[in-house]
Amino acid sequence: MATSDLVLENAQPQLSWRGRLAEKRLPWIPIAVLLVLLACAAFAHWLAPHDPTSLNVINSKLAPFESREHLLGTDVLGRDMLSRLIYGARTTVQISVTALALGAVIGTVIGLVSGYWGSWADAVLMRITDAALGFPTILLALVVVVIMNPGPPAIILAVLLTVWARFARMIRGDVLTVKGYDFVTLARITGVKAPIILWRHIFPNVANTLMVITSLMVGQIILLEAALSFLGLGLSPGAPAWGIMVAEGQEVILDVWWLSLFPGVAITVVVLAFNFFGDWLRDYLDPKLRRAR
Amino acid sequence: MWQFIGIRVLQGIFTLLVISLLVFLATRLTGDPALVLLPPEASSKADYERVRKQLGLDKSLPEQYIIFLRGAVKGDFGLSIRDRRPTRDLLLERLPATLQLALAGMALAVVIGVPLGILSAVKRDSIFDKGGKLFAVLGMAAPQFWVAIMLILLFGAILKLLPTYGREGPENFILPSFVLAWSIMAGIMRLGRSSMLEVLDSDYVRFARIKGLKDGMVVWKHALRNALIPILTFSGISLAGLLNGAIVVEQVFAWPGLGRLMLDGVLQRNFPVVQAAVMASAFFYILTALIVDILYVYADPRIRH
C-alpha cells in the first residue's frame, strides 16, 4: 500500500492553474470572511457610513432595515450599528495582531533557545512555560489589569502572557527534531556560531509550524480579547469594540435585542473562519497530519 | 508512583508560591495601599503613618511577604476595603456557588459530550456525526458571554421557561452550566470521537468482533474504557477553561460566586479581595490538576514509568 501511495504522489499530472488551485482545496468561504475583516479594519474610515461615536438621540434605537440611513439600526445613544461593527473590526484586528506578533516572536525565540541549548536553560524555561499554559487566562488578565489599569496595553499584555507559551512549547518540540539532522551537526562542526545556526538552519525548518500555530491561535485570541472587553477590563466604555457592544446591549436586551446580537454574530463568524482556515493550513502544510486524518 | 505524586505536589506548591509572589507584588506595584485606604481629603500625616503601621507597611518587603504568606495559608488577606469584612468570610461565602457551578458544567459537558462523541465515531459520517461536528465547532467559536445573553433572551424573556439570574433552585443551574459546558464539550466530543475511532480499529476490538460479540457489547465494554483515557486528560486541561468561563458566566447570570467577587474586586480596586479570590482559585485549580494527574496514572499504567 505504501508503494502505491508513493507512485501516485510522484506522478503528479500537469494541471492548469485552475486545476492546481482546486487541488489545494482552498477554504474559500473562510478566506472571504477574513478578507472582509481585513478590509473593514484597514478602510474603516471609508467604509463606515457614519462616525461610530457620534451621538444622535433623535434616531436612537432604530431597528435594522427600519431606515436607509442606518442599515443595521442604531443603539440607545443613536450611534450607527453598522459603523460601530466596522470600526469594531479595526479594534479587534489591531489588538489581536499586536498581541499575536509579540507572542509569536517571544515564544519562538524562547522555543528556539530552549530546544537548541537544552540542559538547565531548557528545564527552567519549560517549567515557566508549563505554569503559563496551565493558568486560567482571565485570572492572569485580572492580575495584569490590577497592576496596569484597564486599557489596550493591559489587554495586549494579558493576551501576550498566555500566548507566548503555546509558541514556545510547539517550536521547542520541532527544534528538538531538527537539531538532530545532519546539516545542523555539520554546520556546528565547521564552526558556525549558534545564533547563525538557529536563524539560517533551524528557523526555516520550524517556520511551517509557526504559521500553523499562528493561524490556530487567532480565534482564541479574538475570543479572549472580546471577553476582556465585555468584562470592562479593556477599552474605555463607548469605544467601538465588539465585546463592549455586546455588554452595552445586554442592559437593554429585552427592548432592543439587535444591539447584542450583531457583534456576537460578528465575533462567532470571524472566529469560525480563522479556525477553519487554521485547520486547512495545518492539513496542507503538514503531510503527516494529513494522512493521520 | 509515590515519587511521581511527590514531584507533582512539589511542583504545585512551587507554582502557588510564584503566583503568591506575583499577587503580593501586584498590589505593591500599583502604588501605596495606605493611600488607597485613606480618604483623599482630610487625612493628616499622622493618619497616614497609623494606617501604614496597621497594614504592616513599615516593615521590609521580605518581612511583609512572609506575613502575607502566613495569612494566605489561613485564607486571611485582611479586610475588604469596601465593607470592612474579613476576606476569609467572603471566600467561604462565595466558594460553594462557584464550585457547584463548575461541577455542574463539567458534569454536563461529560454527560452530553462523551455519548455524542462515541455516537459520532460508531456512526461515522452519518447525520449524527455531521450534526455533532457542527455543534462542537460552534461551541468553540461562539463567545460564552454572548451565548449566555442570547439564551437569557430566548429562554428567559421570550419563552419564559427558565430563570435567568440568581441561584435559588436547581432550574437556576440549567442555563449557566450549559454555557460553561458548551465550549469544553466541543473538545470532549472531538477527542471522544477520534480516540474511539482509533480504539475501534485496534486488534483487540477486532478480535472481540470476530469472536462474535454484539456491536453494543464491543463498544461499551471493550472499546469505551480505553477511549476514555484521553478524555480524562482533556477534562483536566479544560479546568483552566472552566475557571475562565466561570468568571464570564457568573457576571452575566449574576451568580454570587468567586468569579464575580474577583471581577468586582478588580473594578473597585479592592486589593485584599482580589488577592484572596485569585489565590483561592489558583489553589483550587492546582489541586484539581493534581488530582487529575494522579487519576491519569491510575487509568493508564503505561505512564507510571
What features would you highlight for this structure?
heterodimer, A: 293 residues, 74% helix, 0% strand, B: mainly alpha, MetI-like fold, 2 domains, 12 helices, 78% helix, elongated
Cα end-to-end separation of chain A: 17 Å
Low-confidence stretches of chain A: 1-11, 289-293
Round the mean pLDDT of chain B to the nearest integer and report it: 80
> Which two chains share the most extensive interface?
A-B, 38 and 45 residues
Give the tally of structural domains of chain B. Answer: 2
Number of strands of chain A: 0
Using only CA atoms, what is the Rg of chain B?
A: 24 Å
Give the number of helices of chain A. 13
The CATH homologous superfamily of the largest domain in chain B is called: MetI-like
Beta-strand residue percentage of chain B: under 5%
The low-confidence parts of chain B are none
3D structure, described in words:
The complex is a heterodimer of chains A (293) and B (305). With 293 residues, chain A is mainly alpha-helical. Chain A is built from 13 helices and no strands. Chain A starts with a helix and ends with a helix. Chain B folds into 2 domains: 2-87, no CATH class; 99-269 and 285-300, MetI-like fold. Helix content of chain B is 78%, strand content 0%. Chain B has 12 helices and no strands. The mean pLDDT of chain B is 80. Chains A and B meet through α6, α7, α10, α11 and α12 of A and α1, α6, α7, α10 and α11 of B.
